[in-house]
Amino acid sequence: MPRRAFIADLQKAVDGTSIAGISNVQPGGDDGEFTFHCVAAGRTLEISALVPDVSEYPSNHPCMVFAGDDVPSRVANALSDISDSAMGKTIPQLLELVSRKLESTDRDGDKQMLDSQEDYGSEPEDEDDMEEEDEYFPDDELVARPAVGKQHNSVVPEGFTKPTSAFRNRIRSDLLVTKADGFKVGHLGGLMDGLSCYISVSCRVSKLGISEEAMRAWQVEPAEYLVVILHYPNGYKSMDSLRKYDPATARRNFEMRVGISTSYKPTMQEAVRAFTVLSKDEEKRREAESQTESQGATAHNGFRNSFISRPLNELLRERFPALLHYRYNGMPWHGAELFYNDHYGTNHHADLGLSDRYLELEQVSAVYPHIVMADHIQESMTQEHSLPLVGMQFVLRHFVRCTEFCLICFTKMPDDLQAIKPYVCENPLCLYQYMSLGFGPSIEHEILSQPKVVDLLISFCYTTARSGSLKDFPTGLSLMVPPNVAYEQDYASQPQSTYPGWNQTTIQNPRPISNTVAEVPQKVRYNAYTRELIFDDPPHKCPFRFGDWLVIRTADSPSQPFHCRVAETAYYPTVTISEPVKPPIFDPSQGYNAPYNSSVPQPPKPVAPVPPNEFRTASFYIYNQNFDDLNDFHKRETIHALLDLLPSVADMRAYLVRKAQSPLGSWVDRLSPAVLGILRWIIASNRACIVQVDDDDETSMQPKRGEERLYGMSGWAQFRFAMGAPDKERRFVQAVRDTTARLGLKYPTLYAWHGSPLHNWHSIIREGLHFKDTAHGRAFGHGVYHSLDVNTSIGYCGYGGNSVYTWPMSELKVNSALALNEIVNAPKEYVSSSPHLVVAQLDWIQTRYLFIKSTSASLQAPATTSAKETKPLQSIDQDPNMTPRGSSDKLCIPFHATSGSRRQQTRSVKTINKRRKATGLTVYDPIDIDAEEDDDKMSVATLEEDLIILEDEDVYVPEPEPEPLPTPTSLKGKSKAGAFLSKLVGSKSSKPLTDYVPGTLDYSSLPMLAKPTWATQAASKRLLKDFQELVKVQEREPPHELGWHVDPDHFDNMYQWIVELHSFDPTLPLSKDMKAKGIKSIVLELRFGKDYPMSPPFVRVIRPRFLGFQQGGGGHVTAGGAMCMELLTNDGWSAVSSIESVLLQVRMAMSSLEPKPARLEGSGRGEYGVGEAVEAYIRACNVHGWTVPPGFREMAYGGYPNDGSAYMY
């Protein structure tokens, strides 16, 4: 595999290399990065190399080589050239190339010899040829160079696509087909010109048939758009072209990204950012920000990642091209995915399409809208398939139906697993990748946004583990935990199970397992005052390393262990540890069933005395037991023992607020990796949507929680609760409609209680309600048991006794849990309707609320009566004969407890008689997904630039350019309608509207530069593209409205542009001065560096001279002629800025009257020199605190950094 080859080559280089001048090769901080030392320019330099995409190693991968800012310019230029020619080179080849290019020598002064296996002889000629081809010749067409390197027997695409009429018609056809299928289409970049471009395909979330509960769990709103961005870096590619490519070639010419936005298309900045390769840490941080923004009080108005964007983007990149190949061999999507998984990592593809199991049509039990289930490849009547449409349909398959697939291997999950959130399959490797790659929810975000829900999840898991009922474990993460003998004596008198289920026996404590971990504690002496360990008879080597965790017991308090992190081993046999973490002390006097930290008032604890400064006898165990090697009993014991060490959720939240930029894992002295891994697993494996209903919680980020509070359950904490697959609500609604129509029901549904012991809830929120296991016997038949009386269900919560193990650090102190479910109101069709409601049809049941009874005095309601409760302003009409009763009164269920498409307009504060169409703007007002009308009236209006491509089918419509910003002369006395008509029919006046005449500038009088030696291929291509776009705008717009001019006939050096500004507003003082002196234009020079477009151009005035600021001048022109604008510094520049926008803003700055208008100098001094412009630019940056771009002097002086200064910026 490519990654394995990269790791193997890197390890060989780390172990040692014989390349002259190369040493100390080390892995870097990011994936694909490594560093090494190289002797060059008389000193040892540290150089970094980065392979952004190791999946293409070692054949077609790009490679970037760079060093610090303090390296000599010759070295920096050489490294830039190396990056251009390092495509496809292995790590040893790259190191040899660096050694040769930098003329590096070893200790004996020998240079690197050429590898006889590599053909380096022709490389300089190849590079010269490449440089010649990058030169710009105005009369020549841009012809792509043939690709060099390994071909893989595939068709190699051209660098750019020639925009023929057939090419443009195919684009138009593909996009029209996509739009006809119900999607919105947008584009960015040079789509119709065959250049790099983006296409966006989007659909409103409200049209996807996703339940409100799923939207809430997935952190999306009905009015938002699911957006797929398709990037074509080398011009648009049709499905026919993509089918001819191998996967590696396809990835170089076509990529996709998935996200959520309030608009149907992203901005150019958002599109570029979506395809920017980030480090793992930066990607996790950006995703955490997206999750925070999606649930925050302030709406996010741009493109952001969805909760499933990272795994979907990985699926699209790694598998989509191969899956398309399988589709065209006759397989449906599920057959292609099955074939891929069966043959992953092999080359046995001879049986493509021959096996029936790959050709069978998929049987989908869920009821989804047609837009989700459509298959363009199968349904199309022609062989011309739209790639944007097929890509969007594939994304919908895995977005809407995400809970049906494993998030890592994307195999189908068991059909009986109903969950509202996606997860991974039972393969331990998938769980490991899911956790290590950060595909799960951000625990930091969950703790900050819903601290009480996190408390609830931990409490459920703790109780389940302590009671011996936990059956699923974080296996595959290789968590290093203490050996079980380190703490099992602390729980020896507490059996794991106090509640045997129906016809079950209590779990017996098995004999401790034997493993490779030493079971004898190691002796040491411990000083509690200095937090130091000392070995009296030290082993030859320290038995642990820095960062390891220990369990320590002192001889004078053997029953009170503490856990700590090794902080310092440099002075072994004396070792320093972190502040001890002590688990809560179990009080035998209260019995093992009493909860820790009981709410019974306790006397204040005395201040802990200062420990004596002396070493005392102690023993320790190391966290060196692999959790995966334990049996199930000891896995449960380990989980609840480590959760005893977890700080309270309030403490973790306080830490995250205090350390806003740090993850929870940075709390290294308080949280061991094992504890953090278990916490992450508890949060990530929750597959239900739980949101606290708390109208007085200031920390809540959820809106409208007060509208969801149910009346009649005083003294119980309330949570909105949803389980089941994303289409579960749709199936439930369909069952309600069918039954109502069949039985003529006045009240289609009823609400009833479901109670279950506390130790069952950890599995309930992961598996949903079912009746596969018999817990209490089934005297009234098989099904899910419900009751209309809360006291009956409370009895089932404590079946077998009132003993409950409570997580010691819990704020909730959960004692009981109840679910309130909505059920189809057909009791005669239940398995039993008396004394319990026993429902066997799972599609007839939908969870709505979760109620928690707390033993914490601070969280209990002050009264047990309904006097303190307030009935909701809008409530649901219930069947009078089937109304459930709560703890304090009959339940009054709020209007928002049921799905929006079924809400009744009764008992409202204001009765709305007029029928209206749902807007789909919130979860409380969704669009009816069964309605024939679409939601175009409520959609974001499609921009004209996206409509114009689709409307004209016969005549080529060039890509619409953005309207230029208004100039002082273009809007004066002219309406927008007039400007539009003048463009449409032309001006009837023959009188010229400007006195400027193009082509009169004498270029021989200007300081023209030769092409710099440090020119890079990437910058040259971008500059060429930008110049061509500028010329197009100039040819299309009238000169008097444009206000600037470039001469393509004098474009000899793409790193130096000469631009004339003209046709200023005649009322400006600058325009009057120009007229008085007979000056027709302001001559500007733009100089570009090798880092363009990441760094801004240097813009200066050549002539005429302006009056300086100190002499009363303005116009943002410095005394040396440089433009004084933040836009032209690193602080204000954006890589997506166009040169047209730069010229417009420079022109507007010169036309500005604030603080003073621009004026021309009265003396006869000549034009500005580049030296004074450079110094003036740097002075302006220093005055305003702006950042000077790196390498500015070298760029400004055309590659000669010593002109004017001996140092670089």
UniProtKB/TrEMBL annotation:
Record region (Disordered): 102-134, 282-302, 861-913
Domain UBC core: 1018-1187
Bias (Basic and acidic residues) ranges: 102-113
GO molecular function: NAD+ poly-ADP-ribosyltransferase activity; nucleotidyltransferase activity
Keyword NAD part of the UniProt annotation: yes
Pfam families in alphabetical order: PARP, UQ_con
InterPro entries assigned to the protein according to its UniProt record, in alphabetical order: ARTD_PARP (IPR051838), Poly(ADP-ribose)pol_cat_dom (IPR012317), UBC (IPR000608), UBQ-conjugating_enzyme/RWD (IPR016135)
Biased composition (Acidic residues): 116-134
Top-level taxon: Eukaryota
Annotated keywords: Glycosyltransferase, NAD, Nucleotidyltransferase, Transferase
Ranges of compositional bias, category Polar residues: 291-302, 861-886, 898-911
Gene3D superfamilies membership: 3.90.228.10, Ubiquitin Conjugating Enzyme
PROSITE patterns, per database record: UBC_2
PANTHER family found in the cross-reference section: POLY ADP-RIBOSE POLYMERASE FAMILY, MEMBER PARP (PTHR21328)
Identification of the protein by name: UBC core domain-containing protein
